[in-house]
Q: What sequence folds into this?
């Protein structure tokens, strides 16, 4: 194949393979896959879990044009081989119909899980929310689960670290905020789904 016969797609594919191979070799050489095991965790009791989840509950901000808010996926489940599976068409159609009828996002829901680290006062509070659809500028997909994690020192009742998605889409950033970690408020109102 002569160089002028290369298409842009072929050139990019070749470059992608080369970069991917170099990245993998570099990661192995630098020990990226050599890691110690995670610290053992234990589920906290229901009362303490709920208290921490409510205390550090995130406030999610959405762009004024957002249509796909956190919702409860359970109404769209069906059973496949004895396991509950969320049906993509049922979720998309059901969410859209319920939103149109009510004029507001249906069933705002955020799920949480709290675990404590053994031999430590540190706890991880995970907030999971489901969107039936995610329309992004270069991509769209069904069944979008988002995660925000807050690491809390149970002895001081202060958050130590937060992990999650914080990107600016248009005019309104998506960010984490709780009563113990104030941030500046964007111009649009927030929605704060209650943990279930």
A:
């Amino acid at each position: 194949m002569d160089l002028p016969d290369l298409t842009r797609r072929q050139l990019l594919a070749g470059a992608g393979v080369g970069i991917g191979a170099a990245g993998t070799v570099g990661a192995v050489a630098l020990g990226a896959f050599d890691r110690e095991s995670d610290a053992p965790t234990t589920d906290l009791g229901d009362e303490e879990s709920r208290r921490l989840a409510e205390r550090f509950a995130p406030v999610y901000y959405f762009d004024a044009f957002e249509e796909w808010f956190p919702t409860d996926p359970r109404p769209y489940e069906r059973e496949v081989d004895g396991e509950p599976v969320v049906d993509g068409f049922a979720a998309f159609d059901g969410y859209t119909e319920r939103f149109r009828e009510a004029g507001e996002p249906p069933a705002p829901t955020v799920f949480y899980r709290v675990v404590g680290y053994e031999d430590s006062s540190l706890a991880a509070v995970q907030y999971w929310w489901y969107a039936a659809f995610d329309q992004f500028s270069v991509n769209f997909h069904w069944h979008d689960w988002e995660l925000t994690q807050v690491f809390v020192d149970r002895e001081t009742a202060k958050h130590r670290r937060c992990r999650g998605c914080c990107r600016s889409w248009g005019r309104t950033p998506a960010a984490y905020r709780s009563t113990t970690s104030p941030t500046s408020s964007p111009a649009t109102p927030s929605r704060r789904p209650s943990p279930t």
